[in-house]
UniProtKB/TrEMBL annotation:
Residues 623-634 have a biased composition (Pro residues). This is Potassium transporter TrkA. GO terms for biological process: potassium ion transport. The chain crosses the membrane at residues 273-292, 324-345. Residues 2-117, 368-476 form the RCK N-terminal domain. It comes from the Bacteria. Pfam families: TrkA_N. Gene3D superfamilies: NAD(P)-binding Rossmann-like Domain (3.40.50.720). SUPFAM superfamilies: NAD(P)-binding Rossmann-fold domains. It comes from Streptomyces armeniacus.
Length: 634
């Protein structure tokens, strides 16, 4: 496996492939001695128990890719935050090895879909004998921001789902109690039993092992582990839901267009009253003229308007009353000039105000304060708006990626440094429901959270932290200092790495659900030639704490879709979620499993070879093999 990048995702992904899947990994990066994460990757290269090497190159050109072994590699992951650089490397790599499996990180989803189709077509032209499933698996475009956004939103919002997978994976993990898990909706299974503490976030580590001294969530428990637990014990259950349209519909996604806004949003109340008074004066003058002339009302109004705009002939030889009426209409016309100027100025001011970012309105409460509008912050903002949750954003860079999106959605945004005094108060932090600190700087996130805790001790906070030891220390300290408040720390790279690693292994990872800082991965796995699945019943294929079969693809093998995660609700009939425990898995079946990262590695290791290099096992922590299936003849 080849990984290109010098960032948190590259470091996490390298560790995931080497430790969980036992793969030979080569990392292409500018330097092992400097950069963002060079020393961290160097530690993986120097570990004797891991098969990791590195190629140092400022630009991953053809020579660097050949030195990394791209021609013989099974997969290549491009983890740079620069979409254009990733496209350039992907095109180079596809030319060097048309059979190479590409996993590309891209923020622009539209461009990513075009690139995926282009690279898949290149494989189809070079190898017309490949089937459609192999071609579809040759290129995968993922976004770490899209992967992490649901869990970041769920960590901060009261009563919302723990995660709602994007773009068609119609599952949700919901925190309930053992006694109430069957009351609201029939759950598919119990994913985890939460620690017996006042804060279910215990175990804020990032490994499959127990990082909190036995006080971590119990993942994928069996019936024996659930038996005898108190009814008020917290649990995470998996529920199947149907796709719902986004809140507000299409109209809610469009920016408000000024030409069609109500007049009260364009003109002030004083100006509207002045215009109404001027109209009343003209109506009165027209009525008087009609009474005096005795003609038609239309002709009387027309004559008054000519006098009003000073384009009528002077009534020198007319009666005095008509001359007086003409003078009054002319005076009204003079008064109209400053009124028209006021209309122009206020309209210009309204347009400028619409183009600017609005300030938090008075009386705002129950909102979420979002710190940082980078790639991750933009996706989180989109999720919050889809849920109909009011948001106030804080961003110090007026050219940040999410500023344009916030302006188009009229989201209150403060362009300020959160470390300055009074910024959080301007964001109405005292009346907010939660704080999401999602900048790329751990220090700024921590400073904002600590300051918010002083202003509102019971505030729910979720912060983005990369370093696991630092995150665990911060979490425990805040939990002990503010026992009644909820604190969560999340790492975007840790949430995204399982999906990238699964795609590199040629298996479709549909999503990842965080439980604390642990991760449960959902993946589609073929049953054929896998002794842990083939010939076993659904109940026998269940390995407590490691993996569990959730769904079965009941569609015909020749007509199956390779991208289950992009199904629409109408296509969900291809997956059967309520499986009988005695159903025997057949070779032609494809199943959706929930597994720990190490469990998924063991499950894939037991299957057929996915291509060079072979899967060497699951690292130092091997999963004990379950008993052989019963003899079908006896």
């Amino acid at each position: 496996m080849v990984v290109c990048g010098d960032n948190a995702l590259a470091q996490r992904l390298t560790k995931e492939l080497a430790t969980v899947y036992g793969q030979h990994v080569c990392v292409v990066l500018p330097s092992l001695r400097g950069g963002d994460h060079g020393p961290r990757i160097a530690a993986l290269v120097g570990a004797e128990e891991l098969s990791v090497r590195a190629v140092e190159a400022q630009i991953p050109d053809d020579a660097a890719l050949r030195a990394a072994g791209v021609r013989e590699a099974a997969a290549l992951a491009l983890t740079s935050g620069d979409d254009q650089l990733n496209i350039h490397i992907a095109l180079r790599a596809r030319r060097l090895n048309p059979q190479l499996r590409l996993v590309i990180r891209m923020f622009n989803r539209t461009l990513g879909s075009y690139l995926e189709n282009l690279l898949d077509r290149a494989v189809e032209v070079a190898h017309p004998d490949l089937d459609a499933a192999a071609i579809d698996a040759s290129t995968t475009v993922l976004s770490d921001a899209d992967t992490a956004a649901p869990s970041l939103v769920a960590a901060a919002v009261v009563g919302s789902d723990k995660i709602v997978s994007a773009d068609g994976l119609l599952l949700r993990a919901k925190e309930r109690t053992i006694g109430t898990r069957d009351r609201h909706r029939q759950p598919l299974c119990t994913l985890a039993v939460l620690p017996d503490t006042t804060d279910s976030g215990a175990g804020e580590g990032d490994t499959d092992e127990d990082p909190d001294g036995g006080n971590a969530p119990v993942l994928l428990p069996d019936d024996a582990a659930l038996h005898g637990l108190p009814p008020d014990r917290g649990a995470v259950v998996l529920e199947a839901i149907t796709r719902r349209p986004s809140a507000g519909g299409t109209a809610g996604r469009l920016p408000r267009l000024l030409p069609f806004q109500p007049l009260k949003e364009l003109f002030s109340r004083r100006l509207r009253y002045s215009l109404a008074a001027m109209g009343a004066v003209l109506t009165t003058l027209a009525a008087v003229n009609w009474w005096m002339s005795g003609g038609s009302p239309v002709n009387a109004a027309y004559v008054v308007l000519l006098d009003f705009f000073a384009i009528n002939d002077p009534k020198v030889n007319e009666p005095a009353d008509e001359q007086l009426l003409q003078l009054l209409a002319g005076m009204a016309g003079l008064m109209m000039l400053p009124l028209l100027l006021a209309v122009v100025l206020e309209s210009y001011g309204a347009f400028r105000k619409a183009a600017a970012l609005p300030d938090p309105p008075r009386g705002l409460s129950g909102h979420v304060v979002l710190l940082g509008l980078g790639k991750v912050g933009t996706r989180v903002l989109d999720r919050l708006l889809e849920l109909g949750i009011p948001v106030v954003c804080i961003e110090r860079d007026h050219e940040a990626r999410g500023i344009a999106y916030a302006r188009s959605r009229r989201v209150p945004t403060l362009i300020a440094d959160v470390t300055e005094s009074g910024v959080l108060e301007d964001a109405k932090i005292k009346r907010s429901r939660a704080l999401l600190a999602l900048t790329s700087d751990d220090g700024i996130n921590l400073e904002a959270v600590l300051y918010a805790r002083q202003v509102k001790p019971e505030l729910r906070v979720a912060m983005r932290l990369f370093d696991d030891e630092f995150a665990t220390t911060v979490y425990r300290t805040l939990r002990d200092t503010y026992p009644l408040a909820q604190t969560r720390s999340r790492s975007v790279s840790a949430l995204a790495a399982p999906a990238f690693a699964g795609a590199m292994m040629g298996r479709q990872v549909l999503g990842a659900i965080p439980v604390g800082r642990r991760v449960l991965v959902f993946a589609a796995v073929d049953v054929r030639d896998n002794p842990l699945l083939e010939g076993r019943t659904v109940d026998e294929a269940f390995h407590a704490g490691t993996w569990r079969v959730l769904a079965l693809d009941v569609s015909e093998p020749g007509g199956r879709r390779s991208e289950l995660s992009w199904m629409t609700s109408a296509e969900m009939s291809g997956l059967e979620w309520e499986l009988h425990p005695g159903y025997v898995l057949r070779p032609d079946d494809r199943v959706v499993v929930a597994a720990t990262r190490r469990g998924l590695g063991a499950l894939l290791a037991a299957g057929p070879d996915a291509g060079p290099p072979p899967i060497a096992g699951t690292g130092p922590h091997r999963i004990p093999a379950p008993p052989p299936p019963p003899d079908s003849g006896g």
